[in-house]
Write a structure and sequence with these properties.
about 90% helix; about 50 residues
């Protein structure tokens, strides 16, 4: 019984870590998209600045 509980606990811990990594990855991807979008907007503004 103890082995089964230990294995179950490890599996649960592994799943939690996996979910946390997935959330962190999604946050990084979103932050990168936002950064690229802001850079694009700034470049557009610079392009039209001299007019």
């Amino acid at each position: 019984m103890k082995i089964k509980k230990a294995q179950q606990a490890l599996k649960l811990q592994h799943e939690q870590i996996k979910q946390e990594k997935e959330i962190a990855r999604k946050e990084r991807v979103e932050a990168e998209k936002e950064r690229k979008r802001e850079t694009h907007i700034l470049k557009k503004k610079e392009k039209h600045k001299g007019h």
